Amino acid sequence: MNPKANIAYNDQSFTRLYLLARNRVRFKGPIQNRGSSYSTKTSLATHKTIFSGIQPTGIPHLGNYLGALREWVQLQNGATEGTKLLFSVVDLHALTVPQDAPRLRNWRKEMFATLLAVGLDPARSAIFYQSDVPAHTELFWILSTVASMGYLSRMTQWKSKLQLPENTNLEDSAARSKLRLGLFSYPVLQAADILVHRATHVPVGEDQRQHLEFSRNTANSFNHLYGSIFPLPEALISPAKRVMSFKEPTLKMSKSHPDERSRILLSDTPEEIHKKIKGALTDSEPQLNYDPDNRPGVSNLIEILGHFEGKSRDEVVSEFQHSSLRALKEHVANRVAIDLLPIREKYFAFMENKTYLEDVANQGSQAARSNAEATMTQVKEALGL
């Protein structure tokens, strides 16, 4: 992004902070503006606010990149003048499970450096740590007074984290013994993250749609009781389907998988990427086709290549219909390695520049606090606080 481009925001404080940030922090992301491919019923016109967050789990993998981070950059680069963009490392959400403090501290830094490496521009987007903006937790408590316990009990997040069946309810004694309030009320904090910035659009994966619907429901409940404060945020659904494990292609790619060869990290070398993709589990059928149920490994490679080259599944299949699986893997590995190499190089450069990372985080948190505090002023006035 051109740091000299004209930027206009809705409120003066946000503008002032970002003019300051633009003068002090400049960065050109490696990703060209390809336009957003997110789907929504409402166009991203001016005076919109886009917010999204990601947990600090260390260096993201390929699924995180295709499903979220790359799309954030495209939204940023394609946003109209006047659109507010806020992207957060949601470190408070990480506390729903016990954390080792030094490890979490390093994971926060790694995730923040990655957001810059993939192309988020601190002169255009507020990039910040959730815990640096106290209004997130302040609104969380207030929303807890209107959030529905019944709705929360039906959410899948706490059940999947505790490895409980989806039909589990709070009457289950095993569930009650395992469940902690933070994990149960996780969606309320997520709603606060979104609503405290009066977000109108939230980029999410399909599996996060339920959480956004809860945010809309909670906003509607508050507005009904205290007046129209919060817009009802719309989901911007990522076009990227789940990226699957290279070793168990029926499972989503995850850093929790015991085999490191099952995933590509954005910090992997080209040689590591080639080795992992060449070793991906596929099958012995000679003809190439897209069939996630019967050929999940091959279908995963087709999906990945399609996203990197902007092609449909049918186009990829047509291109490689007379090629071997070995040739497909080689092509996918080359394309992924070439696209991720600039991100890897920038990531390590940012990790070595602690002062720069802190400067960007401070600028982002200042802008985010200003935006959030404006919301909290309205909320407190409506509540009589």
TrEMBL record:
Q: What class of enzyme is it?
A: ligase
Lineage, top-rank taxon, reads Eukaryota
What PROSITE patterns does UniProt report for this protein, alphabetically?
A: AA_TRNA_LIGASE_I (PS00178)
Kindly give the CDD domains that the UniProt entry links to this protein.
TrpRS_core
Q: Name one matching Pfam family.
A: tRNA-synt_1b
Question: Which EC numbers characterise this protein's activity in its record?
Answer: 6.1.1.2
Q: Which Gene3D superfamilies match?
A: HUPs, Tyrosyl-Transfer RNA Synthetase
Q: Tell whether Protein biosynthesis is among the UniProt keywords.
A: yes
GO:BP terms for this protein? Answer: mitochondrial tryptophanyl-tRNA aminoacylation
Keyword ATP-binding carried by entry: yes
User: Which UniProt key words apply to this protein?
Assistant: Aminoacyl-tRNA synthetase, ATP-binding, Ligase, Nucleotide-binding, Protein biosynthesis
Under the GO molecular function aspect, what terms does this record hold?
ATP binding; tryptophan-tRNA ligase activity
Q: Where in the cell is it found?
A: Mitochondrion matrix
**InterPro entries from the entry?**
aa-tRNA-synth_I_CS, aa-tRNA-synth_Ic, Rossmann-like_a/b/a_fold, Trp-tRNA-ligase, Trp-tRNA-ligase_bac-type, Trp-tRNA_synthetase
Transmembrane segments in this chain: where?
none
Catalysed transformations (reactions): tRNA(Trp) + L-tryptophan + ATP = L-tryptophyl-tRNA(Trp) + AMP + diphosphate + H(+)
What Gene Ontology cellular-component terms does the record carry? mitochondrial matrix
The entry assigns this protein to a family as follows:
Belongs to the class-I aminoacyl-tRNA synthetase family.
> What is this protein's record name?
Tryptophan--tRNA ligase, mitochondrial
User: Native species of this protein?
Assistant: Aspergillus chevalieri (Eurotium chevalieri)
